[in-house]
Amino acid sequence: MLPSFQLGVSKYWLIFYIFVYSVIFTGSIVGNQLVIWSFIIESKLRRPTNFFIVSLAVTDFLTGLIAVPLGTVARLFTGTKVCLASVRSFYYIATFVFGSITICHLLLITIDRYIAVSQPLKYRNILTKRRCKILITIAWITGSLFGTLPYSSVPPEPNLWVCGVTNDRTAGVGIQKLTSAAIIPLTLLLLSLCYVRIFSIARKHVEETARLQNLDVDASTRLKMMQTTVTTAIILGVFSICWLPSTAKFFIEIYIETTDKQLFVIQTTAEVLVYGNSMMDPIIYGYRNDLFRLTYKRIFHRLCHCFQSNTTSGTKK
């Protein structure tokens, strides 16, 4: 009888996983907590766009807390509790769910930026806090349903061994992977075209304002006036870089013959990028947004002050 859990990688890969995934886990947890706490303690950050951003931070936080550890176990170990078709999806369902919720948030942020740029005077009346909360709820429900859809049916062969390349080529698995591979790039392409349109509208507005005021507005000024939109476009770009290799991985798994070692390297590379995306957004906010950066510093200052106070109290006792 096969063991339930057995280390399936060499010690060098084990060291690699421990180091890289520890960084991703810590970065996701700490970074996204900073975003969430910044939103809570700084009232100036409670604007419509930041409602979507903080909800996205919660998604990334849960990705680091749940999806990263489960994905790590699935790659490091083999055995009946990991590699059978009946249990394999358990280790990746969180990744698909939170990835789907993230895409829904990117769609909401894109819509938010389009309204902000095309109808700036009506923006606050259209996207009220109540409507933002309703849209966020819809995003979570829709993303959760879409993320669990591929795993809603019982595998036709529950006891099929699906680790490696030998048996993981069934029709159901192929359809699931092809669907995921098609939806991700098509959605990102659609959102990218939306941002092209947003920047086009913004440029016209800035040039019209400059012409009425007889000013010469250069490219850097345009970017400064659209700082929030540029930041959200960067978030979309980073997400694309991190997730598009996964679509290539799906095609490779279905159509290209590989060895177990080659497939393991491809899968690991794609998954490191996917999970690494969960720690990138807080870095982008801190770099691009002065208010987020200052609030980060305030939080660290408070934590250091509390630590020093506790240390001093402990010493006196």
TrEMBL record:
Protein name as annotated: Adenosine receptor A2b
InterPro entries: GPCR_Rhodpsn, GPCR_Rhodpsn_7TM, TAAR
Gene Ontology CC: one annotated term: plasma membrane
Alphabetized GO MF terms: G protein-coupled receptor activity
Subcellular location: Cell membrane
Family to which the UniProt record says this protein belongs: Belongs to the G-protein coupled receptor 1 family.
Keywords of the record: Cell membrane, G-protein coupled receptor, Membrane, Receptor, Transducer, Transmembrane, Transmembrane helix
Transport is among the record's keywords: no
Spans through the membrane: 12-39, 51-70, 90-111, 132-151, 178-196, 230-252
Lineage start: Eukaryota, Metazoa, Echinodermata, Eleutherozoa, Echinozoa
Membrane topology: Multi-pass membrane protein
Primary location class: membrane
